[in-house]
Amino acid sequence: MAELMRLQKYLSRAGICSRRKAEEYIEKGFIKINWETATIGQSVDPDKDKVELLDDVVEDAKKLVYYKLNKPRGIVTTCVSKGETGIMDIVDIPTRVFPIGRLDKETTGLIILTNDGRLANYLMHPRYNHEKEYIVETFGPIEDKNIQIMRDGIFILGSYTKEAKVERLSSGKFSITISEWKNRQIRRMVEHVWGTVKKLKRIRIENIQLWDLEPGDYQELSKREKDALFTKLWIK
């Protein structure tokens, strides 16, 4: 018989959520153990008990894994249609993982792959304002006034974007750092100032840098990368 484990710890280790969030799920009656609604303070046997979150079975992830991938152009990060290649088709990772966030089909660069649901929740929740940095190339030069407009905020998808860090690299190339996950946000921002994106590449998520990782290549995050990320996200 395996050692009993507090339910909150079990859900956290499974990569579902943080322990604090697990308590919230338990209080709301979202969790069942062996088909009965769980209660705060309850323990589980990872080898024998069936744990469900909203009728989906929770599997114990004994080892949480974290990778970074340089997504090539043409690869799909969400639902794959017939004839398309999905992000999970180009990796060979023994543990079942999923991408955090998305990059559209034509955008390249950094994607984090993991089986840690807590990390996905922290990085994608709008309240935490996590930074993502991109390199943008446009067809033709982009004017200084348009650089400033993107810094100040643009009305797209029903609301204004938050202030962004935008630095010119050349007449038709700039870096931009945003803290939101709006759909195709940067492309929409460039289109708003009458520009067209030629190339778009994500190079950083918080402290995780793409560095010189080649398109299609992936590697596990280093201990230093994980420690810095988890410390900032309060999930160490």
What does this structure look like?
There is one protein chain. The protein is built from six helices and 19 strands. The protein has helices at 7-13, 19-27, 117-124, 144-152, 185-192, 223-233, and strands at 5-6, 31-33, 36-37, 43-44, 51-53, 56-57, 66-71, 75-76, 85-86, 98-100, 108-114, 132-138, 155-156, 159-160, 165-170, 173-178, 197-205, 208-209, 218-220. Strands 7, 10, 11, 12, 15, 16, 17, 18 and 19 form a nine-stranded mixed beta sheet that branches. A four-stranded antiparallel beta sheet has the order 3-2-5-6, with no helix packed on it. A two-stranded antiparallel ribbon has the order 1-4. The model has no long low-confidence stretch (mean pLDDT 89).
Gross morphology is elongated
Strand content: 25-35%
- Total beta strands: 19
CATH level 4 superfamily of the largest domain: Pseudouridine synthase I, catalytic domain, N-terminal subdomain
Number of domains: 3
Which percent bin holds the helix content? Answer: 10-25%
- What's the CATH class label of the largest domain? Alpha Beta
CATH-defined topology of the largest domain: Alpha-Beta Plaits
Q: If you average the pLDDT, what whole number results? A: 89
